[in-house]
Amino acid sequence: MYSEDVERAIRVALHAHDGQTRKGSADPYVVHPIHIALVLTRHGAPDHVVQAGLLHDVVEDCDGWDVERIEAEFGAEVAEIVAELTEDKTRSWEERKRAGIEKVATMSADAATVKAADKLHNLSSMVRDLARSESPDAFWSHFNGGRDRTLSMARELVEALAPRVGEDLARSLRATVDMLASIDRERRA
């Protein structure tokens, strides 16, 4: 059973991401933070980490939200994790992804766990969408880094995260990025 604080974070995520969709998909964006919360819960994360997982993109992608508002509504622990995970959208895709990989070594264990759950869901969605796409090129056209850079950055991030998170989560990340590369090869053959 979720706590009232987690339920409140679910409601905020639903409202804040209202009308947003996942990249290259008609899926409501809120499916992503909810899936992250499920992964975190399955891996035994405490409520404040689950809340941060639900809210991890709110500051970055939603009007009217900043770290101070997260702190006021959910407390310092949640706000600190969200702040660690928030990308600077004024930087290029390459700069943001490189900074994210480099930051893994120094981020808190809680932030690394949320980042891993985030990456696992992103990779899982990519596996599903690539398998369903009309062509690999059509699929990869939705990504700023294209095929090669997106796969390379994903693998680098997974390898940076693996020693920071539990064995089960690390294994899932590696298996999913391997599956993405494998499906891409199969679709191109």
Low-confidence stretches: none
How much is the average pLDDT? 95
Please give the oligomerization state of what you see. Answer: single chain
Separate helix tally: 11
Give me the CATH fold name: Hypothetical protein af1432
Strand content: under 5%
Q: How many domains comprise the coordinates?
A: 1
Rg, nearest Å: 16 Å
CATH architecture term: Orthogonal Bundle
Keywords: Hydrolase
EC number: 3.1.7.2
GO molecular function: guanosine-3',5'-bis(diphosphate) 3'-diphosphatase activity
Pfam families: HD_4 (PF13328)
Can you offer a commentary on this structure?
- Helices cover 71% and strands 0% of the residues.
- It is built from eleven helices and no strands.
- The termini are far apart.
What are its keywords?
single chain; 189 residues; Hypothetical protein af1432; 11 helices
Write the layout of secondary structure elements.
Elements: H1 4-16, H2 31-42, H3 47-55, H4 58-61, H5 67-74, H6 76-85, H7 93-103, H8 109-132, H9 136-140, H10 146-161, H11 167-188
GO molecular function: guanosine-3',5'-bis(diphosphate) 3'-diphosphatase activity
InterPro entries: HD/PDEase_dom, MESH1
Protein name: Guanosine-3',5'-bis(Diphosphate) 3'-pyrophosphohydrolase
